[in-house]
C-alpha cells in the first residue's frame, strides 16, 4: 500500500527536479563555443560523482546488496554516461526547445515499454490519458519552434535521433535505479552508485573536451552551475521522488521540463514562441494534472515472475480530499 503522503512527496520531488532540469538548455546558451560533449560530461560527470560522495556511507554499508544486483548498476551507469552526451548534442543540432522536447517527451513512452517488457506493469487509463496530452503538447511545441526558425537545418534529423537516444537512456537509468531501490538498496545509495559509476565513465570525455572550462572563467561558471544545480540538486530531488512513485510516472511528470525550457528560452534567451507553442505548454501542464491528481482512486497492477511463480501486486491510494 502506497501512502498518499509518500506519493505526493514523490510527485513534488520529481516536479522540482523537472523545473531545475528545464534551466539546462538556457544555461548552455551562455557557453556557445563549448562542445555539447563537454557540457554533458561536466554536468552529469561532476554531478554524478557528487551524488556518489553524498551517499558514500550508505553505498559502503550496502555494497554487498548492490553487488548482488550489479547488472542493474551497470545498466544504469551506462545509460547515465550516454544520456547527457546525446541530450546536449540533440539540443546543439536541433535547438534547445526541440532537443529538450524530443529527449524528455519520448522518455515516458519508452519507460512504459521497459516496465511492460521487464516488470509486467499494466498502466492505468489515467496515465495513458495524461501521457497522450503531454505528447500532443510536446508535438505542438516542437512544431511551433521549428516553424519559427524555418526549415533549413540539415542537422535537424540528427538532433531528433539523438533526442530519442537520450529519451531511451533516461528511461533506462530511471528504471534500473528504481529496481535497485525495490531490491532494498536505499534511494541515496542507489542513485549515488548509479550516477557515480556513470560519472566515472564520463571522465575520459571530460578530459578530452573540457579544456575550455579551465581556460575561460565564464565557461567554468556555466559548468559549475550545470553540475551543482540541475544535475546534483535536481537528481537528489528526482531520487527522492523515484523511491516513492513508479519510474513511468516519474518520467511522465518530467514532461514539465520542456515547458520550463521553452518559457526560459522566450524570457531569457529571446526566442519567440507562437500560439501553437503556448498551446503545447498548456497541454503539458494539463497532462501533469491528469497524471498526478488522483480522481477518487489511483491504482495499477504489477505482475512479476519471481522464482517462476507469478506474483500480483495491487497498489491503491484512496483520495482523502
Q: What's the gyration radius in Å?
A: 19 Å
Structural class by sheet pairing and helices: mainly alpha
Relative helix content? over 70%
- The pLDDT mean sits at 81
The topology string of helices and strands comes to: HHHHHHHEHHHHHHHHEE
Contiguous helical run count = 15
The main sheet comes to:
3 strands, antiparallel
Strand portion, in percent?
5-15%
Q: Uncertain segments of ≥5 residues (pLDDT<50)? A: 296-321
Envelope shape: globular
Q: Whole-Å distance between the termini? A: 18 Å
- Number of strand segments: 3
User: Which sequence of strands runs across the widest sheet?
Assistant: 1-2-3
Kindly describe this structure.
- It is a single chain.
- Helix 8 (125-149) packs antiparallel against helix 15.
- The chain has helices at residues 4-21, 24-28, 36-54, 56-61, 63-68, 70-94, 96-118, 125-149, 156-182, 187-209, 211-215, 217-242, 247-253, 256-269, 275-292, and strands spanning 121-122, 297-306, 309-318.
- It is 77% helix and 7% strand.
- Strand 2 (297-306) and strand 3 (309-318) form a beta hairpin.
- Mean pLDDT is 81; it is low at 296-321.
- By secondary structure, the protein is mainly α.
- The protein is globular and about 55 Å long.
- A three-stranded antiparallel β-sheet has the order 1-2-3.
- The chain contains 15 helices and three strands.
